[in-house]
Amino acid sequence: MTRTLLHRLAPARLHALEQIWAVLPEARLVGGVVRDLMVGRAIADVDLAVPQPPEEVMQGLKAQGITVVPTGLAHGTVTAVIDSAPYEITTLRRDVETDGRHAVVCWTDNWQEDAARRDFTINAMSCDSTGAVHDYFGGQQDLAEGTVRFVGDVTLRIQEDALRILRFFRFWGRYGQGRADAQAMQAITAQAALLNGLSVERVWSELKRILAGPKAQDVVYLMQQAGILPVLLPEGANVPLFARLMAFNPPADALLRLAALVPNKSADMARRLKFSRAEAARLKAMQAEPVPLPKMSDAQLRHLLADTPPDILAARSWLHQARYSDVLGEELRQRLAQLEIPVFPIAGRDLLEAGCQPGPHVGQVLKDVRNWWQQGGCSADKQACLAYALELVKALP
């Protein structure tokens, strides 16, 4: 591999790397950036590794006027900031001890030792300043063939960190082709119970990325085949409903897809996986009533839009389409998107300015007017709403 690989980087990033290499000539790009450069995918983060200890790395960068932040000294990581962009630089490591969730590491100057502690062969490659790729475990061939394969002993890799089970499925969804690696599937099935030892926050973080990622349906089938769905989702997974949703090509919305995969006891799941309040509320709203239907008039849809955000109504439509194979679902969502979100045109101060006496009856009058406004398709303007409100006030005992 020639320096052409590096030229696939944006010029600003390449310029920043050249500044780092001027200080740390032995530094190499590692992990995802190498993998994605090789397949021509967009680059998210640019991470590097070096044989020097972190204190020496910081000292050298600072001496050249490069801003550096000690983001994870205990793990050997510092972050160089160049033109406001971060570049994580980590000292080569080897594992001393692991417990399935955390690892005790020590520094090393051996690149292969560092690569050996990574999860998959496609993530274990490194690229130096000349553009040469260093591949100790056949990652280039696996990437070309669409094989997601663990580095070294599969069972040991999983025992070191059980989250690698979920990472296997996430990476297979993005880079895998054909049948999944048989050794990996066997080891995952045998050690599925290790998922119970992970923090639920880590589990949900990975599950979110799986559901929103490519080939989500194939990945869920693969997880079902490996026997991890009952461990991952003890509330019960409705794979057929999920498959019907995916057949309609829904948006890459993890919560929407999860609402189909776990249609029952989703509140229990949200509590167990410690969803944020916003996530839990959104999931609950997606599965609530009323559901917009294709047979509804624009006035009826405006009625719904007055109370419920359009994205939630669209999500309810997707789930209804999955349950009943409603072929008009897409047409309905287009109608929803074209409708203006109605805003109730009056407030309590408007009634007071119109001569209504203050008191608890004002709130009830507003509620009654709003209901009348909605029943009429949210088309009445401010003047009409005020007129109706004053009629109600006059009728008060």
UniProtKB/TrEMBL annotation:
Domain tRNA nucleotidyltransferase/poly(A) polymerase RNA and SrmB- binding intervals: 183-236
Ranges for domain Poly A polymerase head: 27-149
Keywords recorded for this protein, A-Z: Magnesium, Metal-binding, Nucleotide-binding, Nucleotidyltransferase, RNA-binding, Transferase, tRNA processing
InterPro entries: Bact_CCA-adding_enz_type3_sf (IPR050264), NT_sf (IPR043519), PolA_pol_head_dom (IPR002646), PolyA_RNA-bd (IPR032828)
Segments passing through the bilayer: none
Pfam family name, one: PolyA_pol
Cofactor (UniProt): Mg(2+)
PANTHER family in the cross-refs: CCA TRNA NUCLEOTIDYLTRANSFERASE 1, MITOCHONDRIAL (PTHR46173)
UniProt family annotation: Belongs to the tRNA nucleotidyltransferase/poly(A) polymerase family.
Protein name: Poly(A) polymerase
